[in-house]
Amino acid sequence: MKVKKGDTVLIIAGDDKGRKGKVIKVFPKKNKILVEGINIQKKHVRPRREGEKGQIIEKPGPIDVSNVKVICPKCGKPTKVGYTKVKDKKFRVCKVCNHEFE
Ligand SMILES: [Zn+2]
User: Fold this and answer.
1) For the chain, which residues score pLDDT lower than 70?
2) 57 C-alpha to ligand 1 centroid (Å)
3) Are 31 and 54 in a shared domain?
């Protein structure tokens, strides 16, 4: 996948279009990712014991990887990512500034 955990991405489609967030989980087989603060799903949690209050937990829901662009760690611009190999190691390349990153 072109997006990795820890990347900052720009959302380019959907309700959160134009927002940025950090990737907190990737699901390579499904081509989906979780992004901090994006596609928030509210989940009601019932009280476990009598006298306790129920809670609403907000969690990011998975979004399709095609709905985001990686923000280049060097130039800070949203970019398409290419690949290159340096000494058999694969790097991603920013198509804006040609910066290579893991
Ligand atoms: Zn760049």
Assistant:
1) none
2) 36
3) yes
